[in-house]
Every structure is written in structure tokens, then in C-alpha cells.
Amino acid sequence: MTIEAQRTEWRLRNGQAYEALDTLQFQLQLRAHLRSFKHRFVRGQGPNTRARKSISLVQEKIDIAVRDYRISYEALDALGSILFKYGWHNELQPLLDEDIRDLSEGEDKKSDGKRIVSWIWRIKEIQNLENDSHLNDREFFCPFYDAFL
């Protein structure tokens, strides 16, 4: 694999990791809302079954986002040493099971005053994607673009 291919793979995996974290955040917030809604408003066997089904579908999406992030993180970890990229560990971290929690969920045996927010809620978003020269370069993504015109 050439060094340029490795750099491209790095950018791809980095974007995938941030996208997986964004999806994870959204799905965790959705799950928290559905649980709250179910607790407050849902009564009866039929509605409870439907609410549990909705929550389980969201949980499946959470599991997929976690899997995608872990795969991307492992690839970044392997490519990082090859490409001499070391600063990325300051923001992206290994995703442990105890990190996968909503903002309103605290760590076990911690009171509200001692609650520590999981690192997944403190990451920065990728900025200025529209200014990235590679995203605007149609030859980078579509080498056969002109053949279909």
C-alpha cells in the first residue's frame, strides 16, 4: 500500500470515527427520550410492547454505531504509527462499554454532584468540511465521473 493510499485511508477512517460518534450521540439522546416518554405516558400491555420495540430498535442502532467506531479506531491506531500521527489520541479514545451512556446517565455509584460526563460528549465536531479541498475535488472521489456525462 502506498503512502498516499494510507493517508487517504487515514482521512476516511477519521471521518468514519467522527460520524459514528455523532450517530451514537443522537441515538443515545433518542433512547433517553423514548425511555422518559415510555415511563411518563405509556400504559397498558400493547403500548408498552410497542414502546419496548422502538427502544430496542434504537439500541440496535447504538450497537452498530459502537461497532463502526471501534473498527475505525482500530484502523486509525494501526495507521497512526505508520503515518506518524500522534495527536489524534487527545480527542478520539477507545470506546469502553462504560462510556456508552446518555448525558443524563451517570457512572455507577456516583451522585449527581460527582457525575462525570463521558468523553463522547466532549469531542469537537469536524469543522469546515466545505473548505476541504479533497471533498471539492471530483477527480478524488469520482475518477470515472466524466465517462458518465
Describe the structure.
This protein has helices at 3-41, 45-83, 133-136, 138-141. The chain has one domain. Helix content is 58%, strand content 0%. Mean pLDDT is 83; it is low at 128-149. Helix 1 packs antiparallel against helix 2. With 149 residues, the protein is mostly helical.
Count the domains. 1
- Measured between the Cα atoms of the first and last residue, the distance is 31 Å
Rg calculated over all Cα atoms: 20 Å
DSSP strand content: under 5%
Q: What's the total number of strands?
A: 0
Give the overall shape, derived from the CA principal axes.
elongated
**Largest beta-sheet characterization:** none
What is the H/E order?
A: HHHH
In short:
With 149 residues, the chain is mainly alpha-helical.
